[in-house]
Design a protein that fits this description.
Order of helices and strands: HEEEEEHHEHHEHEHEHHEHEH
Number of helices: 11
Helix content: 25-40%
CATH architecture: Alpha-Beta Barrel
Structural class: alpha/beta
Pfam families: EAL
GO molecular function: cyclic-guanylate-specific phosphodiesterase activity
EC number: 3.1.4.52
CATH superfamily: EAL domain
InterPro entries: Cyclic-di-GMP_PDE-like (IPR050706), EAL_dom (IPR001633), EAL_sf (IPR035919)
Protein name: Oxygen sensor protein DosP
Strand order of the largest sheet: 3-4-6-7-8-9-10-11
Oligomer: single chain
Length: about 280
Amino acid sequence: MVKHLRTQSEFEEYLRDDNNGDVMAVFNGLELRSAFQPIFRANGTVLGFEALVRARKIDGEPACPSHLFRKLDHDHPDFVNQISIDKLARVIHLRNFSSFAGNHSIFLNMLPSSAVASIETFSNQNLMVKRLAELGIPRHHVVLEVVEHLHADTLSLSVATTQSINNGFQIAVDDYGVEGSEEMRVRMIRPSLIKIDRSLVQRYVEGEVEAMLRAIALSKEVNAELLVEGIENQEEYEAMRALHINYFQGFHLGMPQRLEDFFAANPGKRGPTQKVE
């Protein structure tokens, strides 16, 4: 078992430059790379990008991110490695994002267990604060996405997210609407943004509107903005726009890719003005 990564020198040990000049990580038999999916405002301009990890084994076989970041108990033999992979992914994402940051935000996935572990020791989040300053990324442009229903200890998660907010980060509840999501936990976490799971979008366009309307009401109650993810066709996009949702994300609007490839396809659009039609 590889020990829990904590210091900058320990992270640096696993970083490499790939053939495209991007930063990648090689850790525990895995290669980790970044992909970025655009997130659009209601007016069609780019708010920012969700950083997604692309993993494969050293022999080239793909590794499924949903398996790498599945819910594990603290005594599971893969738990420590999972936390380190979670942190390494954010390290490479921030480095690859820094050259293109501009006025955009970056959305970083964070396992609830990793969020709690970071706050309990303070070391990792303090390291992130330092690295963001060195990379020139404003803290208020960093949105930490947590999946509230994957953590049983709501109080510890609430303390962790509150500390993150106090450190200048934004908090988003990810995948809201899947089995296990609870309104009470959202109220305790105090997110600035709620990401609505695609399942609620599908149910809404099929005529089951109650769950989506409850999510909208919850967002107003906790003073959070709404982001609908998983938009895969024009019908879904138009239906969500009619609800006056704040932000949109999905394959219909933009595929995950390298940031350099995104901006190469949209030259001169590194500011906040790139629009989706």
